């Protein structure tokens, strides 16, 4: 029997059977992508590129709100019903631009390679942070919204709806209700896209730079992603910084 088993193993090896190929095949699928790069320095040898698209930038939300408030204020400055044609045209243009802004806001990614940290669609454009400028990296775990906070948000939403109804019925000003109703499909689209495209956005990563640009509020660049991606981003950036 031992002789038969040995002969069988010898035949399998001759036919090209590999005992570890099955184990390797089972671990190929992964959410984030890695790739070999050339060494940054002789100290650390080969490093891996790391890229993830499961990320959102709070800076984009700030731009989103600024654009919304400016457009909202301009549209409300038009009188109803005297300037109804301009008002409806403005709503149409605003909704179209709002839609493309949503698509651009969610077309995000982070790439860490030998050249630096690359942020895609950060403030709606490509942005690069060289390793020489990185001073520190901080991880912050985001807490889930409590039931109390959800109740307060619900009460606030009801109060806003009541105020809008009072403006429309009591004062005859229909600009605000029409504008908010026109935005409802876009807001639902944005909520659905975020829910289906991203997962487990529970960790915020802060990258502090050594020199703050004159137009920046703070030297921190932040992003929100899942915990595993945040840990890998932090580890990859620190390894590259050590090789400078």
UniProtKB/TrEMBL annotation:
Keywords: Membrane, Transmembrane, Transmembrane helix. The chain crosses the membrane at residues 55-78, 84-103, 149-168, 174-190. The keyword Membrane applies. It comes from the Archaea. This is DUF1673 domain-containing protein. It comes from Methanosarcina acetivorans.
